[in-house]
């Protein structure tokens, strides 16, 4: 066995011994139960949040865990530094996160060139001098910290206790001792290493910075561990958005999205966009339909803000309430008209569905005072079809010739009628036109 393998085996043995020691210690404690009233009445120390939302919901709990993750280039480092100088100065961050007091922060940056991080931090502290004294930054060993190292965990406990640190910020998880691809057991093991420091330094909160997987979600089975999970995403040049993915103790921010604009001094401002609600979706759908009557949902959807599932639900409710008219007979497809549009003729059932998909020839003829051009074939006997005669007309949409049975006037060929009603695809319509041309050719031959 190599020396490296021996050291790894020894480290695993030491970790197992510590885990067994903790289990023995906790197993010696007898189970104790109290009434719910007695449990809730106890004012236990450390319950006050280090930072809260605008309604006093907890964002960073004492002894809690915050997970912030995002793509490279999304502005994670800039955003974290901006948040930290506000918290360290006792100032609200974007009116979203309010510290209970100026927080004492320990920052561990475990990747990237140290000299570049020095310059970035210096630029930030130039405008936040108070934070220069309340933030402690790990200088050595640069890129050499691991929570898996028991000696380093002991040093963390000694330092944060002596300096009365409130918040330990460390990045990135992949360089802090996390092993494996992030299975539940692997995440639980690493989280327990961080929790070991927190257990021995009462009140210490931890913020870990991570990266997403290829699907855009947090890498690894982290969902159940943090009290707060923030997803930082790039949103185009000069823009960043935060999805407050999970806030166990804050209903105000939980599940919300905050859009940020980049500002001077490597800072951010909130993009004060109008909140997207069901009411705004109704207004925008109706406005889009008035602007583009008869358009498909595919064309209308990008003009409406909001979640795609919620937009579809609002659309369906407008159809059911008769405010929109859907002029397609094929299930799952849409040709939408505003109910006040005179062209949006409803079916007799008044279901809010489309106009009759195949208007009668009389209705079409009445709509256009000038009759379409028709070429008479004369009386063509077609016994096998049971039709006494036929006329040929040119479609006013595709200009293809088509036969009009029994001399009834018509404007559109069967293919265009079916395509307008969303009953066929473009390819199927072309096939119908080809068959129609063959039919006309056969009729002309018979007339000759």
Q: How are the elements arranged and paired?
A:
Blueprint: H1 3-27, H2 36-41, E1 49-52, E2 58-61, E3 65-70, H3 76-89, E4 98-99, E5 105-109, H4 114-125, H5 131-134, E6 135-137, H6 150-162, E7 167-171, H7 184-200, E8 205-210, E9 228-234, E10 239-247, E11 257-263, E12 267-270, H8 278-291, H9 297-300, H10 308-320, E13 324-326, E14 336-338, H11 361-367, E15 374-376, E16 390-394, E17 401-405, H12 414-420, H13 426-447
Parallel strand pairs: 3-8, 3-9, 5-6, 5-7, 7-8
Antiparallel strand pairs: 1-2, 1-4, 9-10, 10-11, 11-12, 13-14, 15-16, 16-17
Describe the structure.
The chain has a 9-stranded mixed beta sheet with strand order 6-5-7-8-3-9-10-11-12. A 3-stranded antiparallel beta sheet has the order 2-1-4. The N and C termini lie far apart (98 Å). Helix 7 (184-200) links the parallel strand 7 (167-171) and strand 8 (205-210). The model is unreliable at 347-389 (pLDDT under 50). The longest helix is centred in the N-terminal third of the chain and has 25 residues, at 3-27. Helix 8 (278-291) packs across helix 10 (308-320). The chain is of the alpha/beta class. Helices cover 35% and strands 18% of the residues.
């Amino acid at each position: 066995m190599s020396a490296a393998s021996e050291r790894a085996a020894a480290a695993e043995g030491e970790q197992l011994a510590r885990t067994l020691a903790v289990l023995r210690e906790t197993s010696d404690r007898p189970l104790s139960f109290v009434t719910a009233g007695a449990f809730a009445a106890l004012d236990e120390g450390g319950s006050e949040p280090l930072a809260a939302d605008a309604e006093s919901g907890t964002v960073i709990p004492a002894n809690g865990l915050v997970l912030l993750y995002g793509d490279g280039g999304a502005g994670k480092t800039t955003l974290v530094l901006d948040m930290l100088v506000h918290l360290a100065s006792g100032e609200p961050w974007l009116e979203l996160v309010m510290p209970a007091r100026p927080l004492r922060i320990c920052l561990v940056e475990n990747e990237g060139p140290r000299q570049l991080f020095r310059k970035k931090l210096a630029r930030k502290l130039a405008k936040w001098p108070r934070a220069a004294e309340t933030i402690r930054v790990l200088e050595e060993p640069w890129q050499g910290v691991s929570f898996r190292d028991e000696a380093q965990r002991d040093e963390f406990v000694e330092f944060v206790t002596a300096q009365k640190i409130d918040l330990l910020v460390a990045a990135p998880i992949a360089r802090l001792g996390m092993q494996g691809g992030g299975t539940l057991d692997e995440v639980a093991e690493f989280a327990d290493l961080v929790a070991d420091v927190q257990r021995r330094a009462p009140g210490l909160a931890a913020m870990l910075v991570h990266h997403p997987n290829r699907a855009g979600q947090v890498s690894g089975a982290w969902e159940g561990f943090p009290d707060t999970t923030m997803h930082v995403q790039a949103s185009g040049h000069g823009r960043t958005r935060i999805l407050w993915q999970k806030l166990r103790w804050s209903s105000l921010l939980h599940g919300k999205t905050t859009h940020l604009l980049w500002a001077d001094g490597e800072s951010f401002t909130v993009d004060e966009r109008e909140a997207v609600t069901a009411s705004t979706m109704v207004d925008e759908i109706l406005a889009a339909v008035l602007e583009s009557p008869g358009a498909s949902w595919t064309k209308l959807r990008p003009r409406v803000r909001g979640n795609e599932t919620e937009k579809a639900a609002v659309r369906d409710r407008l159809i059911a309430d008769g405010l929109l008219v859907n002029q397609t007979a094929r299930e799952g497809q849409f040709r939408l008209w505003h109910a006040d549009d005179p062209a949006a003729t409803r079916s007799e059932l008044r279901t809010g569905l489309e106009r009759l998909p195949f208007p009668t020839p009389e209705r079409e003829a009445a709509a256009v005072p000038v009759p379409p051009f028709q070429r008479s074939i004369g009386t063509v006997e077609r016994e096998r079809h049971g039709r006494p005669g036929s006329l040929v007309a040119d479609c006013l949409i595709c200009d293809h010739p088509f036969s009009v049975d029994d001399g009834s006037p018509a404007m559109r060929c069967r293919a265009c009628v079916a395509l307008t009603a969303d009953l066929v695809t473009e390819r199927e319509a072309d096939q119908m036109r080809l068959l129609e041309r063959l039919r006309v050719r056969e009729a002309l031959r018979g007339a000759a």
